[in-house]
Amino acid sequence: MIRLIKETRANRETGGYMVQALSESQTRDLLQTASVGRLACIVEDGPYVVPISYIVEGNSIYSHSLAGTKISAMRKNPRVCIQVDKIETALRWTSVLAFGTFEELTNDEERHRIINKLLYRFPFLTPVESTIALDAGSTEVVVFRIKIDKLTGVSEGEATELELLESLGSQTNVF
């Protein structure tokens, strides 16, 4: 089961802006609809973050890559996270982190299915990626999933007066 971290806090210094936890539904919606995720892994004992295109199915995030630094890093330490966001302004944004475990897909049928779904969602992939779709069985192309075990999501934005009062523990009556 996936754990969803919930946090809420009001910040009086920002003039009524709040950071609040997203519901599981809001968290999953952003994860499903974002066009770019930032994959974080460990390279030589330090953080390494790269943008990826991806799709979500159930509790897994699927992507692909040519062999290189991130694939080597994930093979060595399969614990990773993916961050996605929607930024409207510096004070109005939403962010999601999905933590999980990297797994390479080795079944050719599953690899083709995922590559085709990626091409469907991202029809303007580069020519190299388009060639991958024709030959997803190539040993150079790594198709992988991140099995999600924890999701967090927060947003910041202008709070209504009612939300500010509730976050401060005030009793309010709405008629």
List keywords for this structure.
ten-stranded mixed sheet; alpha+beta; disordered C terminus; globular; Pnp Oxidase, Chain A; 5 helices
**CATH structural fold name:** Pnp Oxidase, Chain A
Which CATH first-tier class would you pick? Mainly Beta
Helix proportion of residues, in percent?
Answer: 25-40%
Largest beta sheet, briefly? 10 strands, mixed
Domains, number: 1
Distance between the termini: 40 Å
The geometry reads as globular
What is the CATH architecture descriptor?
Answer: Roll
Oligomer: single chain
Order of helices and strands: EEEHEEEEHEEHHEH
Q: What is the CATH superfamily label?
A: Electron Transport, Fmn-binding Protein, Chain A
Low-confidence stretches: 3-14, 170-175
- Radius of gyration over all CA atoms, rounded: 19 Å
Helical region count? 5
The number of strands is 10
Protein model, in words:
The protein has 175 residues and is α+β, with helices and mostly antiparallel strands. It has a single domain, classed as Electron Transport, Fmn-binding Protein, Chain A (Pnp Oxidase, Chain A). It contains five helices and ten strands. Strands 1, 2, 3, 4, 5, 6, 7, 8, 9 and 10 form a ten-stranded mixed beta sheet that branches. The radius of gyration is 19 Å and the shape is globular. The N and C termini lie far apart (40 Å). The relative contact order is 0.24.
